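agent> Task received from the user: take the single chain below, predict its 3D structure, and emit structure tokens. No templates, no multimer pairing.
agent> Plan: (1) validate residues, (2) run structure prediction, (3) serialize to tokens, (4) report one or two observations.
agent> Step 1 OK, no nonstandard residues flagged.
tool_call: predict_structure(input=
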Amino acid sequence: MGCSINTRMKRPQITDVPRISQVGEIQIKKDQFVQENQHRFAEVYQIGESLGSGAFGEVKICFQRDTRQKRAVKIMRKDLMKSESKRDDLEKEISILRSMDHPNIVRLYEFFEDQKRIYIVMEHCAGGELFDEIIKRKNFQEVHAAQIMYQLFSAVAYLHSHHVIHRDLKPENILLEESNDTLNIKLIDFGTAVMSNNKIKDAMGTAYYIAPEVLSGQYSEKCDMWSCGVILYILLSGRPPFDGRDDSEIVNKAQIGKFDIIDDPWGRISNEAKNLITGLLCKAESRLSASQCLQHPWITSRAHRPIATEEIIQVVMRNLTTFHNSNKLRDAVNTFIASQCISMQDTRLLREVFRSMDKNGDGKLSREELMEQYVWSLGEADAEIEVNRIMEEVDADHNGYIDYTEFLKATLDMKKLLSSDNLKQAFRMFDRDGSGSISAAELKKILEGGVISDDKVWDDLIVQADQNGDGEIDLQEFQDVILSKV
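)
tool_result: status=success, residues=486
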């Protein structure tokens, strides 16, 4: 049944790994809770209708049996992945997705493996593919196209800052969150993504969207920006910039690099939009980066969506101000629930506030961006004190930024976050053997996070909640310590 995905993941050498010797040194990260579930998939989820199929399996709707949460599952047949490289690609996809924490990148929840299949459980987006919306609409108004492209540029900028190249950006790999909302997107399908700081050699991608340099056998993350240019062109005109009878003709035209921005409908489209397209569908050395696109006049003048009211922003700022991270177990539970249990609908307004505070669109909040928000109401001196405190309390992984999940756990309504159902789900996650209590070994397995630690660290964490002194945490003790400051 196995744990072969986990055990084959590459781990750092012991000499490179830090050591934690006290509870305060534990770092809480979202990806610690994205793990292989040791139960059978059918015990945890009920399968629903099919959403699509591919070379190695299919994607289906599924429902978590305990909570009835609706999710999507990518089911991969192991007999079709006979080569070592295919298995490595799947492990790489899981590894990349579990580390992503951006509001426009699909969330990975957990994965399963049995003798025949591997199951990757992710967010379900009810709106379907952007591709289908393009077919239905023919083309988008500039303001709507800008709002979609802002989110795509933000997701890609985030990927590139983490040295991840997607390599297959296309409307089929962009999902719409809701069926009645065509302007909130999620980037999916990291099966061809790669982590690299260097030039890549192996050709990868889809003919309509593939950058010319990919075919020459040496390229960088700028290949994703060419794909973004093609997507933008299609959103505005309803047709691809390079077309042909077959893949060979399409890529040949892309290598020549000539495309039409004169004929209908381009006469009705702004010069700023054409300028952005020209800055993307060009040679790699002069091609715009995702960060530069986020600051392009066409994006900055059209992509703003004032959904979050000033009142909501003030509530969020107060929640950030009053958030206290005084207990590692409570912080771990808050992080788990914010990343695994809260729906897209429950975070919609918070996401808009996060986006409004994220001035450069990179998918995380810097100290400077927080200062800009708080100086207006507190003045410079008090704002600096407050922002320093927020960074200390909310930045649980100490990377110098407030990541999206860290923002959610600090700003969500605590009664909603720590509902009875959510606490029970969190307890089950920590109680890995289903014994009805949480041991120090179980805490270590989930929270150690690839570092070396003293056993005393986890014993001390147990002591903070263990009221009856039996060396473990039962459900009542768990709820008491989590709710003690609410």
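agent> Step 4: summary for the user.
The domain at 130-302 is CATH 1.10.510.10 (Transferase(Phosphotransferase); domain 1).
agent> Done.
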